[in-house]
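Example record for the data management plan.
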Amino acid sequence: MSITASRRTTSVIAALAAVPLFVALAGCATASSEAGSGGGSEDETVKIGVVGKGDAQWAPFVEAAADEGITVELVDFGSYEQPNPALTEGEIDLNQFQHIVYLAEYNTASGSDLEPIGSTAIYPLGLYSQKYDDVDSIPEGETIAVPDDASNQARALLVLQSAGLIELKSGGTIFSDLSDVDTDKSKVEVTALEAALIPTSLPDVAAAIINNDFVEDAGLTFDDAIAQDDPEDPNALPYVNIFAARAEDADNETYLKLVEIFQTNEDVQAGLLESSGDTAVPLQTPVDDLVASLKKVQEDTEANK
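Corresponding structural encoding:
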């Protein structure tokens, strides 16, 4: 979660800004020690934590960075819980796997000060089933699985509410959890599982919200979703995916150059769309808007403790 793809314009992002949207680690990269805050030089190595380095955007990104004198080393992680602590501890220089809500929750819980330094894309979150072809076919009382991490769980519940499968007592917010489900007014029951385990659990439930990174692990394609949220909803800014850095590196010229390469290189953008099954909506959201959104979500997270 570049110059915005044809499906998205900078003016839309400006409008969104007004709204309150994975594995062993190596040592620190030379970019951090050589460049520092605001620094930058050629022939640097930057370690970037990702979830799924085999995704089609990463090979052209590494190549394009090398053309600019920057060596990118991708550090692949197996779960969402790992890249932020690795970044905080200086084991990697950047990461790119999360949206703003996830980062806000990490910062709030850990006392860290990681910051967004650029957007990548926003991805619709989908509901999948191996038993039913559409939402209306799901019988009353069946069980649907959602991710157990707070940020994705709230978004998943909003998808289920939009699909008419559940009703949330609060009407639904980015802080909704299972306790917010009005069971008397909901058609289905909801259970929470670790995001990476949901694909293998899909045969055991009526349907499941599956994060994009794990859709293919379930033997599915993105077109198989029987419901999903709308990435153009004005409330979507907190779910924009980002490059994150430590606060002291937010102005690092090398890191910002890498963001620019990701956002503007045609092969990278084509790979991004390919790896998302054409579901990604590439964005070039102003960094100030990303930072403001992070601050707002962190404040709301603290208030909701």
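Summary line stored alongside the record: The domain at 126-228 is CATH 3.40.190.10 (D-Maltodextrin-Binding Protein; domain 2).
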